[in-house]
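Consider this record:
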Amino acid sequence: MSAHMVHMAMMGLLVSVAAPTLLLVLARIAPRLDRWTVPAAVVLPGFVLLHAAVTVWDHSARLPPLLDAAMPVAMLGGAVLFWAPVLGARHRLPDTGRTLYLYTAMPLLDLAGVWLVVVGDSAGGLSMIAGMLPLGVIAVVVTWNWIHREERRAVAEEPAHSADGPAYDTAALSAVEGGTSMGVHTRTEFPPREGRARGGRGREARSRDHRHREHRLQDHRHRDRTW
């Protein structure tokens, strides 16, 4: 492996490993630095342009030693800002946003390595792309954690729904019994009462008919005795 391949692989690892590690360390020892971070909508296109510019400039021009040493520092600083929406606090994206952010950034950042392959530096381009592979691993981990949290949230909410079910049914039954359940009482309370009322009137009518027949029988018996 040539020194050039090592250099390009280190540039990729600078973005995918060194920058997120440095951000996590800074979050512990100097959390106030998080206020210097910028939103994802600004840092993503800005870092993609910085990454491409450093890669192209490093490949195309003979830079002075001081400027050549400043290139990795600029790349590291931009990469730390790039990771802030994923691992930071102030501009941290939600789980869905972090997943989309990383999966959008991966092909855009690989364009610089593809450009190196196109212009003839296949070893350097492939080395840079290989050095960026941990970015994909982190994206998979973020996605997996998101799915796992959603599953735990769904499981945690199931007892609440089951506990609310009986309370809702009891309230609904109480409302129906009280005659306030959106007109349901007209179908649940009144027909049984009307049925009972009609049943009562029917029994009274049958009782009157029975008494009337008894009176008629008594009249006929009295007449028979008379005759």
In short: Residues 166-191, 193-198 have pLDDT under 50 and may be disordered. Helices lie at 3-29, 40-60, 65-87, 95-118, 122-131, 133-178, 185-188, 190-226. Residues 189-226 form one domain.
